[in-house]
């Protein structure tokens, strides 16, 4: 009970006692009026319930929901490096592709490869040319590969290159792809190479020897002897025996048979066969093959040694192929074979066409030129030695398959990473 109500109750009791004793006085009547007025204007009971419920419910619900959502900033950092979202690509031409990285923090290993189409079965495709690199944040990387003249598929992808599509695909790693050459499939091309080789050698040898020796001997010997002896003897005998019997029997038999037979058959045969055979002998064959080999080595030998001076960085095989004047050396021992610069350039210009020996030797030549110019080879020297030994076991152009091809391709991939600056001292700017 509040103090005011308590006072009011006490005075009411007192007033009732006075009324019971002798009636109200003026003083108590005023008191009672004042108390009644004060009772009606009391506002205390209304203040307590309104203050407490409004303060507590409004404070608690507003604070709790606003603090909790601020903790949702943590999960946004997880999916930052997502190549499927960050990378896009397009082709500037059949041989040049570009890959754009929209990420602000991530770098990706990417590549471009061209494959020869033997038919419409992807498993039958054979790798023709390929290039790899790394695209940094907010940047665009251009890659260039060789494209065959026949039907081909060109792929842009992220991650490692597939040297064969037999039973495997780029799948989610494929950024974009392009097909060229229509139905001009490459399967008929390998049959051209073996037919040209055997036709050149066997033709000149058999025609020269048999035609010259056997024909002149039998024709000259029989024609001279039979014509002289039989014609002289029969004509001499009839002159002494003129009279009766021997004249009729001997004259017609020898003269009619011997004269036309040997003369008509032997004369034209030897003359017609011997004349054209020796003139068609293969005089130009040896001179055509030996001329370009020695002459190709003379030009780049003195000019190649001046440019590099201890560069501790690496170039790709494409750079060395297009800058022969920058070579630090003009001869290299590759796979146990010594090549001069013109021979090495000829190897660079030969398309692998799926042959692992050419895929590997292109990267091995570039790696040896990089170390020769001063690039640190501590990360790749073991792979260079293994690749040299592999090429000695599988010589250039032998087209190994199976596990041997997989081993050679793995060496080529490591050498390509070194030449592109992904391992080792880094790429030359």
UniProtKB/TrEMBL annotation:
Residues 39-62, 220-309 have a biased composition (Low complexity). Residues 35-62, 194-311 are annotated as: Disordered. Residues 201-219 have a biased composition (Pro residues). Keywords: Signal. Residues 1-29 form the signal peptide. It comes from the Bacteria. This is Uncharacterized protein. It comes from Herpetosiphon geysericola.
């Amino acid at each position: 009970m509040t103090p005011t109500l308590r006072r009011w109750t006490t005075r009411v009791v007192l007033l009732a006692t006075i009324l019971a004793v002798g009636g109200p006085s003026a003083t108590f009547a005023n008191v009672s009026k004042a108390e009644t007025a004060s009772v009606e204007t009391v506002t205390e009971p209304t203040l307590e319930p309104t203050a407490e419920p409004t303060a507590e419910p409004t404070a608690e619900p507003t604070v709790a929901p606003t603090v909790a959502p601020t903790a949702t900033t943590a999960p946004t950092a997880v999916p930052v490096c997502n190549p499927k979202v960050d990378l896009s690509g397009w082709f500037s031409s059949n041989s040049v592709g570009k890959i754009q990285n929209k990420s602000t923090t991530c770098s990706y290993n990417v590549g471009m490869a061209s494959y020869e189409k033997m038919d419409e079965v992807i498993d039958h495709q054979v790798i023709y040319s390929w290039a790899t690199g790394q695209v940094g944040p907010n940047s665009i990387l251009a890659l260039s590969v060789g494209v065959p003249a026949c039907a081909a598929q060109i792929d842009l992808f992220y991650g490692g290159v597939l040297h064969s599509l037999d039973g495997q695909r780029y799948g989610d790693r494929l950024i974009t792809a392009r097909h060229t050459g229509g139905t001009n499939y490459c399967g008929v091309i390998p049959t051209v190479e073996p037919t040209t080789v055997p036709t050149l050698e066997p033709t000149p040898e058999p025609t020269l020897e048999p035609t010259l020796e056997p024909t002149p001997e039998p024709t000259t010997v029989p024609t001279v002897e039979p014509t002289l002896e039989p014609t002289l003897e029969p004509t001499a005998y009839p002159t002494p025996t003129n009279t009766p019997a021997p004249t009729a029997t001997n004259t017609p038999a020898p003269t009619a048979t011997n004269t036309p037979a040997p003369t008509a058959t032997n004369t034209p045969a030897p003359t017609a066969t011997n004349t054209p055979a020796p003139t068609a002998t293969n005089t130009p064959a040896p001179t055509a093959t030996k001329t370009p080999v020695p002459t190709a080595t003379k030009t780049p030998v003195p000019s190649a040694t001046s440019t590099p001076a201890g560069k501790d960085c690496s170039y790709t095989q494409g750079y060395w192929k297009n800058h022969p004047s920058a070579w630090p050396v003009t001869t290299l021992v590759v796979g146990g074979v010594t090549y001069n610069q013109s021979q090495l350039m000829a190897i660079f210009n030969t398309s692998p066409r799926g042959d692992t020996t050419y895929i590997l030797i292109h990267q091995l030549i570039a790696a040896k030129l990089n170390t020769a110019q001063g690039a640190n080879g501590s990360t790749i020297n073991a792979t260079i030695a293994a690749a040299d030994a592999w090429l000695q076991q599988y010589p250039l152009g032998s087209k190994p398959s199976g596990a041997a091809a997989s081993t050679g391709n793995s060496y080529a991939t490591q050498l390509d990473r070194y030449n592109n600056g992904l391992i080792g001292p880094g790429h030359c700017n």
